[in-house]
Automatic annotation (TrEMBL):
This is Two-component system response regulatory protein, LytTR family. The keyword DNA repair does not apply. Keywords: Phosphoprotein. Residues 145-251 form the HTH LytTR-type domain.
Amino acid sequence: MKILIIEDEPRAARQLENLLHKTSFNYELLDVIDTVEDTVIWFKENSDPDLVFMDIQLADGLSFEIFQKIEIEAPIIFTTAFDQYAIQAFKVNSVDYLLKPVQQEDLETALNKFQKSNTNSNNLSSDVLKELLGSLQTPQERAGILVKEGNSFVQIRISELLYVYSQDSITFGVTNTKRYIIDETIDQLFNSLDQTKFYKINRGQIVSKFSIQKIDPYFNHRVKLVLSNPRDQEFIVSRQKTSDFKSWMNS
């Protein structure tokens, strides 16, 4: 069984590879790809794999954009950190998905389902894609967030967050006065935020629009941000996101 992984978080890709290795399924990993653009190129240059694991949020946009550019005949299992509300559309449309962080038992169930299925291609019609895309772009109200303070938990207002970053597998949120530990991954948190106010500038950082003081040009067509209370952090917008980030800032 030839497998392709489309995932922009290296840690999540490695975890999925490790889980696959623990299963009894014989497979060959063809490649790991992290952007919409590179996925389109890969499918144009290669034969379809037997199975694709596809993350929803990639480095340069939502993976559903891939289907607007090319046809993929291979079966797909989506991986997503979106919350239970958003993935209702997956259930309604009978689209296979795995909720992050992926668990061994869930992966094996999905693989067993794939092997027992007589379907040789995915069933993602344009209507299904629109339904999924619409559900994932639905604004979600979230006023507060639970954070660690010593041995206890306190709630802070989302409006207080200047930026969020991941370091050594720990998610930190920074306000004007303090840094907090957040018991969520970067993806889980970002998917619950108002994305007109917050932007994921790279794999490990989310910034608030209102914390950005200055935008400077940076090498390799990237930009560097100057934020309030930076706490020795550098904020570099990834090359794939620079154009979209500028549009977001203008909105």
